[in-house]
Amino acid sequence: MMKSLVIIPAYNEEKSILRTVQDIREHAPDFDYVVVNDCSTDDTLAICRREHIRVLALPVNLGIGGAVQTGYLYAMKNGYDYAVQFDGDGQHDAAFLHAMRDKMEAEGVNMMIGSRFIEGEGFQSSAVRRFGIRFFTGLIRLLTGKTVTDPTSGMRMADKKVIAMFADCYPKDYPEPESLVACLQAGMKVSEYPVIMRERMGGVSSISPMRSVYYMIKVTLAILVEFFRRKEYRK
Amino acid sequence: MMTVKLQLIVGAVLILGMLLILIMVKKRSLDLKYALSWLLGIVLVLILDCFPKLLNRLSRALGVFSPVNMIFFLGFCFSLLIIFTLTVIVSRMSERIRKLSQAVALNEEKLRILTADEQKEKKEDGK
Description:
With 235 residues, chain A is an alpha/beta fold.
C-alpha cells in the first residue's frame, strides 16, 4: 500500500482551511494530510486543533518555502511514498490527486505538476501573470530543454527521491520555479497533469502587484543560479 | 599633510568608539567575536592617525592625493568589510532559525501523539 501525504501550507487561512481539508477527505480519502501552520496571526491553528486536524505549528513565520519544506521533512521522516503540496486557500481541487498519483506511477516520473494551462480550463490567472509564467516556461526550456507549461503551480506531487531532495534543500520565497529547475538539473523526471484551479476563497496571494517586479527579478536570478549550481555539482 | 587639530579629533572619536565597544563587551551586550573586527579596524586607523608619516607614505604609494582622504577611504573599506561579514552571518542565522523552527514543529507534533497515547493507556489501566 502506497503512503501518500497532502502538505497544506497555511498562513492566515481561517476562512478556507476547513473547506480545503473537507475537499481532501471527500475526494482523496486515502491520502493523509497535514497542515503546516506558518505562524498564522488569525485562528487557523485554533480551528485545526479544534477539528483534530494534524498540524505542524511553526513557532516563527518562515514564509512559504520554509513551511512547505517542513511538510517534506515530515513526509520523509514518516516514510511517505508520495507527498503533494496543496494550497490551503481553496485554489486547488483534491479530485485530481488520485489521477495525478496514478499517472506518476504509470509513467515512473519523480515529480508531477498540476498545470492550469494544458487544457486551459478554470481560473487562468490574470494576463500579466500569464505573461510572467510564459517567460519562465521559456527560460526553463532554454536552460534545461524541458517544456513545463505551469512552472509556478503550487500543486505538485513528489516521489521519495524528490521528497528527500526538497527536505534537504528548498528555496525560501517564491520557491516553485527554482526548485523545479533544481529537480530537472538533478536528473529527475518531471511531468505535468492538467488540472482546474479555482480563484482563492480567502487569504491573500503571496505575490502582491507591488512585489511582482521583485518577484520576476528574484525568480529569474534564482533559476540562473540554480542552473549553474547543479552543473558544477555534476563535474 | 593632516592638521594636528584633525588628528586630535579623529583620534578622540576613535578612542571614544573603542571605549564604547569595550564597555559593551564587558556588559555582555556585544559579543567579543563580532566586536573584534571593529576593534581591529579602529586600531589600524588609530595607528595611521598617530603616525602621519606612515599615512603620507601609504597615500603616496596608492596615489591618494590627500592623506585625510586615505583615512576616510580606509575607514570606508573597513565598514564595507564588516557590513558584508554581517550579511553572511545573517544568511547563516536565518538558515539556522529555519532548521530550528522546523525541528520544533515536528517534535511538538510527535510529543502530541505520544502524550495522547499515554493518556489512552492510563485510561485503559484505570478500567
